[in-house]
Amino acid sequence: MVSETGKMRVAAIGDLHVQESSVAPYREMFAEISANADVLVLCGDLTNFGKTKEAEILAEDIKSCSIPVVGVLGNHDYECGQPEHVVEILQSAGMTVLDEQALEIEGVGFAGVKGFMGGYGRGELAPFGEPIAKAFVDEAMNEARKLENQLRTLRTERSVAVLHYSPIVQTIEGEPDEIFQYLGSQRLCEPIDRFDHVKAVVHGHAHHGTYEGRTPRGTPVYNVAQFVLKPKFGKQYVILEI
Ligand SMILES: [Fe+2]
Ligand SMILES: [Fe+2]
User: Cα separation of 242 and 37, whole Å?
Assistant: First the structure.
């Protein structure tokens, strides 16, 4: 299953945004990926509005994959207020939706959460004042905590952190500065940099962001939103060797 170099070929794509009107939108691409990679990682915004029909359309394409499919939800998958139902549909098609529990495939760990917004550096929102401001920050802290708990359980030498929101600023550059704080949170970075086994981080959400960046400790971070990948590589997905 793993390539001759001993590395795992991890195909990654974010922001699929499957719509109700889509007809087998990723069938062909998933077949190509199944032939060239060992695992497929989906980085959220799998559906456009989190509708049942959208999830069912994607589920059919996932069923055609002959390699393991893992991933996280994105904010769009919450829009209809039934993310659990979206998860249920995708899991019954064979996808593992990461949130509370990490997964190990052929010696490589996968830990993932959707993440949340909140900003970076001086622009980071603090848990201060009104209860609603504190609740907002709590959400980001909770996502970071779930990621840390998963990373802590992994006993693998190599792992991949899977997110929807960005943990760093570099990979959202290209988006308007005014919305940086809605594209991710640096709180997601702290757990990543605490574990040596994290070899790569993949995320989506910033459709106009930048492909590559690094955490403060140097772990590579890739924005794999298909809208970032397509203009850069001519393909909607990327294959990383882990
Ligand atoms: Fe998106
Ligand atoms: Fe998103």
Answer: 11
Q: Determine the Cα–Cα distance for residues 127 and 140; give it in Å rounded to an integer.
A: 10
CA of 237 to the centre of ligand 1 (A): 14
Convert the pLDDT of each residue in 113-136 to its tens digit.
999 999 999 999 999 999 999 999
Q: How far apart are the CA of 93 and the centre of ligand 1, in A?
A: 22
Token readout for 120 is: 């970076």
- Sequence-separated contacts (24+) of 20-26 with Cβ below 8 Å: 20/48, 20/51, 20/53, 20/54, 20/57, 22/54, 22/57, 23/57, 24/57, 24/60, 24/61, 25/57, 25/58, 25/61, 26/58, 26/61
Residue 229: strand, helix, or coil: helix
* Residues in Cβ contact with 179 at an 8 Å cutoff, skipping those fewer than 6 apart: none
**Side chain identity at residue 96, one-letter code:** T
CB of 21 closer than 8 Å to CB of 15: no
Mean pLDDT of 33-53: 98
Residues 6+ apart with CB under 8 A from 138: 127
CA of 141 to the centre of ligand 1 (A): 22
- Where helices occur in 38-103 by DSSP H, the ranges are 52-63, 83-92
- 184: pLDDT strictly greater than 80: yes
